Amino acid sequence: MDEKAESHSQDLEIFGYQTHGCRKTLCLAGSIFSFGILPLVFYWKPAWHVWANCVPCSLQEADIVLLRTTDEFQTYSRKKVMWIYLSALNSTFGLTPDHPLITDEECLINRAIRKPELKVRYIKVQKIRYVWNNLEGQFQKIGSLEDWLSSAKIHLKFGSGLTREEQEISEDYKEYAFAIIIMSTISIALTVYDLRTQSVKLYRLVESHNSITVPVCGRKAGVEELESRFLVPGDLLILTGNRVQMPCDAVLLDGSCVVNEGMLTGESIPVTKTPLPQMDGSVPWKTQSEADYKRHILFCGTEVIQAKGACSRTVKAVVLQTGFNTAKGDLVRSILYPKSMNFKLYRDAIRFLLCLVATATIGMIYTLCVYVLSGKAPGEVVRKALDVITIAVPPALPAALTTGIIYAQKRLKKKGIFCISPQRINVCGQLNLVCFDKTGTLTREGLDVWGVMPCNKNGFQEVHSFASGRALPWGPLCASMASCHSLILLDETIQGDPLDLKMFEATNWEMAISGDNFHIKEVPAHAMVVKPSKTASQVPVEGIAILHQFPFSSALQRMTVIVQEMGGDRLAFMKGAPEKVASFCQPETVPASFVSELQIYTTQGFRVIALAYKKLEMDHHTTALMRDQVEADLIFLGLLILENRLKEETKPVLEELISARIRTVMITGDNLQTAITVARNSGMVSEGQKVILIEASESTGSSSASISWKLVEEKKPTAYGNQDNYINIREEVSENSREESYHFALSGKSFQVISQHFSSLLPKILMNGTIFARMSPGQKSSLVEEFQKLDYFVGMCGDGANDCGALKMAHVGISLSEHEASVASPFTSKTPNIACVPQLIKEGRAAFVTSFCMFKYMALYSIIQYVGVLLLYWETNSLSNYQFLFQDLAITTLIGATMNLNGAYPKLVPFRPVGRLISPPLLLSVIFNILLSLAMQTVGFILVQRQPWYNMGMHSACTMQNKSISNLTTPPTAPGKVESNDGFPSFENTTIWFLGTINCIIVALIFSKGKPFRQPTYKNYIFVLVLIVQLAVCLFILFADIPDLYRRLDLLCTPILWRVCIVIMLSCNFIVSLIVEEAIIENRALWMTIKRYFGYRSKSQYRIWHRALANDPTWPPLNQMSPSDLPECGKEVSYSNPVFESNEEQL
């Protein structure tokens, strides 16, 4: 039996199993007889553990559950089903049969209690507890209010707070803090500096809100102070004062709050939160209105800057979620349990390790045969055989692979780029498509108000330019600019969205908070009031009081306010996307030239906002008015025009990425024509490249869904007022345009229609889709996912405000924010421009290549040692402890610590590093160097035995320097060996050790790659110094006749001529390896030629589509008809292109 659950943004399948006694006994015996290897295998493969010990059963009977992710990895995890015995709480909490927890049939805990035993089954997955719902037969998450609750039920059930009994019986969340503290303690104990740094950062992340006290209102006990760690879902919080850290997720019931959600979104712009309206009906509260339900939620970890009660009442909020269930808990869990990535490096590393294990197994069998035939003691035979495994499989390999990432993370931190998922740094090196938000990312955050275009019954009037210094005349347009915003006054400073701030400043009005003596009907004390300043135009009203806000939402693309003129009318003002605002206005009030005027300014890159208003009846209570009532039958006021200039870094960065053959895509919520202009000005669309506008419309009763292609041509404007100077649609296309590259531009609405009705066309469109405008946050995420389906490695860069979904969905999400860590993305840049993107790609490529270099080196180091030891085993000899230590510590450890210090190469080259360990160049490099090392050590092993002085035997030549070997006479011993307690010193041992040790240094130099992805090796001064010192020490030991040193290292002194022979063999090894590495392995042109010769073609989806479209003369289509993928009622759905035909060319 299986079902689906959700944990940390990914779906899980759950399977029930029951422990079987006989199977468990057999597994226990297997663990004993395998000397602990079987439990190790079960640890790595939890599914095998369950299948071996248990039998399948229903979830209701299961004592073990097996969880499987639904992604491409199919990762398994094993969880034990636990029990909570509520009967044991009788004496402590007075749990009786009439307790609210047991009698409330709507409560999830009630449905989870098994009666009459009063016990609850549960499992714990990634810090979240799931209880078994006996009625529905599934595990359900607890620790938060149920989503099915309607707004009316939330107000009724929790509006007065919980009783003492309901508070006490809920789960204690001390573990939330303890988990972080324990992790910090463990990491300190292990003295792993980087792990400790991450743990301390995590601890500080939760400690700030986990140790505060908050006022909680109880149904009977009244208001009392409670430590935040004791909060439970359903508690009623009382928010007082300013600068309050939220200790949990809570739903706002009464009053309004201004919140800094920088930790969540990466954007430190105050956000206004409104109370959850009390609506009749049983519709779940999250879906009761079209607007984003998150505007009612105060998220854990965010800061409540300002809390204002309605009509002098207190600000109340119901606890929605606590602990790891909260938004901040989700951030902590995303760090503790990072999402699996489809990255071939790690899978290839496992496969290569398995090859090393197979090699070690062969060596172990060889060792057993040699030592058993030699009559050695069983204990020594087993010890030697086990030694082979530790030599062939380097235990430091995983650590070596991560050192490059750690160094890259430190270099990124110095550049102001912070990372909460270090494993993704390697993925940065594989990026070949980067999506950018426009506003605040490509263009400047601060907008300049260029002018406003009023309108009346006769159409648009002359543009009022603010550059002239003239004040805007009084009227509804001026009033809307002064009051339709979400600005707040904090510490005598106006704060809020930059667009709102610029718009308000242009009016020359002032902002104030009304005092206690402020008495206007239905206007509360301490309301926000805007007043004309001395420099403003003559105004017949004293000011305007802002009564109620319907905040801006990216999904809705608008905001609305209800205001009261002092001594005047009650009005509603709306501002937002021009097309959206116009749709709410009376058609006769929208000028006929609306579309053409809008195009004039958007095609020049201006940001355009529309304004509208209506009068309201005075007898309506403002809080009782629903949004859809207010936002109807509005009167169109005009267009606010703001300059949206490019950031200085935008154009050079995009040019750098494009020259490196990294695709750049714009995903914005702004106007399509504005986006096209910004794309041209920024270089995303180069001169001479065409932009094709794709328009798709939904099917209606009389017509089927349709899609059309129109070629967009740019005309340079000469005057703002000339309506002919805007982007027009070409009706004819010259033949040579087929040979030019092109880009597709489309809106979010068209993207949605194409996804639903023309899904077979979507990959073709995405191959050249560059400009996506009017995209909602959900559509941004969907687009990123569609690009990933084409096998692109996708990066997403945004300011975090409405890009959170896309930032998390992308392989690499980069948030431009002042915060080090945010839920929004794995990377956060303090520098508020896109210059961080190429830096991140460069460091990713450098870290990626470094991982490959370290992998090759560690593999070669272990094989060199492995080959040497096996050769010595033939003579039942081996390396001594000091010889092993010298190679492991003095050579390999120092190389591993310094080889990764190469920084990133400053220039992005137009190709990526090889993405797989199991690739022909890398395999050839490793295999060739293994064979070269094997040949050199074998030759040295054989030649030393054929030397004329080999059979004479000698204690040491060091005591009789420069004497002829023939003059040395010693009692005969076994050939080439010397009587010794350890039995290590021999000519073979000495030769093999010198060849292997210096070969490790040579391999490190050969494998340390520089250009084109890393700084040249000679610039890694520490690494070069280490190699020089190591080589000097080894040569000193080789040529210095120091008896004590040789005796300590278990070496024998050999004739000078033989030492020279060792140096010659090593030199030949170095020269041959260097030539092959540079002339063949690193020769990209050679490998490309080989690929073409054998007809190799990439299997990536985007490459396949590119080849298909390049050979398709009908794409984009011309005057063709085709049914949609989802025909409605058997009707055919057509798409047409009356004007354009072209061939694809590679960008």
From TrEMBL:
Region of interest (Disordered), ranges: 1128-1147
GO biological process, one term: intracellular calcium ion homeostasis
TM region(s), chain numbering: 26-44, 176-195, 349-373, 385-408, 855-874, 880-901, 922-944, 990-1008, 1020-1040, 1056-1076
SUPFAM superfamilies (alphabetical): Calcium ATPase, transduction domain A (SSF81653), Calcium ATPase, transmembrane domain M (SSF81665), HAD-like (SSF56784), Metal cation-transporting ATPase, ATP-binding domain N (SSF81660)
CDD domains the record matches: P-type_ATPase_cation
Highest taxon in the source lineage: Eukaryota
Family under the similarity heading: Belongs to the cation transport ATPase (P-type) (TC 3.A.3) family. Type V subfamily.
The name this protein goes by in its record: Cation-transporting ATPase
Taxonomic placement: Eukaryota, Metazoa, Chordata, Craniata, Vertebrata
